[in-house]
Specification:
Blueprint (H helix, E strand, L loop, with lengths): L7 E4 L5 H12 L3 E6 L2 H13 L3 E6 L8 H12 L4 E4 L14 H29 L2 E6 L12 H21 L4 E8 L12 E2 L5 E2 L14 H12 L10 E4 L7
Parallel strand pairs: 1-2, 1-4, 2-3, 4-5, 5-6, 6-9
Antiparallel strand pairs: 7-8
Helix pairs in contact: 1-6, 4-5
Length: about 250
């Protein structure tokens, strides 16, 4: 039996990177998966991959910038599958640069996408899970909520907000049987990072932000998906309000 057998899981930003890897893994572990994203073609490809492997999935086209559509996303999941047991609020964007080059537009784009939308997904997911008597919610934060790097001020602010929001929500929702955590990855091979990734003769992937990582490489999305799986599964039944850093030892240096 899989770790999410019989459960319904939502993955935002499920068309690529960590979200795609998570959607595929959750389905393999027995979940019925609803994944969201802006790109219908990519979403259909993930659904087809899951179904070809014997899983069950649907794609819901959604744009994080349109927070008014979020209750409708949750309603569609429940309409199709009857409930919502797990939610991985993974979707987000990057955005940064030196302080003196950043604009209000960059702030609004990054914070609205990464933090504002995450809050309204949390709100809608929690409302449904309260009706059911419990559930598990996970956010995709960042190691940059804990450590500092030049040129990441706005991105770090958005991810730091996610960590604090998840902790506060865990305290508020615990009595309803709802667990809330965040996974805080270091640099991971995704479409957002691919352009600056190089692969050495030893097969290890590297990136400018990965300098000093004790494990000597960047992460693969499947490695983050495995941690997300654990935190959303019943094996983490007593874990809530935590920010689990998954960074190859980067924050330990």
């Amino acid at each position: 039996m899989g770790l999410l057998e019989g459960k319904v899981a939502l993955v935002t930003g499920g068309t690529s990177g960590i979200g795609r890897a998570s959607a595929v893994l959750f389905a393999k572990e027995g979940a019925k998966v609803a994944l969201t994203g802006r790109r219908a073609e990519e979403g259909a490809a993930v659904v087809a991959e899951i179904k070809a492997a014997g899983g069950d999935a649907i794609f819901i086209q959604a744009d994080l910038a349109k927070t008014e559509s979020i209750p409708g996303v949750i309603a569609e999941v429940v309409s199709h599958y009857g409930r919502l047991d797990c939610a991985f609020n993974n979707a987000g964007i990057s955005g940064g640069g030196p302080l003196d080059t950043l604009t209000e537009g960059v702030w609004d784009s990054v914070v609205d996408t990464n933090l504002k939308a995450a809050f309204f997904y949390l709100q809608a997911e929690a409302a449904q899970m309260k009706k059911q008597g419990g559930g598990a919610i996970l956010f995709n934060g960042s190691v940059l909520a804990s450590i500092a790097m030049p040129g990441t001020s706005i991105y770090s602010a958005s991810k730091g907000g996610i960590v604090s929001m998840a902790r506060a929500a865990a305290v508020e929702l615990g009595s309803h049987g709802i667990r809330v955590n965040s996974i805080n990855p270091s640099i991971t091979r995704t479409s957002m990072t691919e352009g600056r990734i190089t692969t050495g003769t030893d097969g290890k992937a590297s990136h400018p932000y990965a300098v000093g990582i004790p494990l000597g490489r960047i992460a693969e999305p499947e490695e983050m998906a495995e941690v997300a799986l654990f935190l959303l599964s019943d094996r983490a039944s007593y874990v809530t309000g935590q920010a689990l850093i998954v960074d190859g030892g980067q924050s330990a240096t």
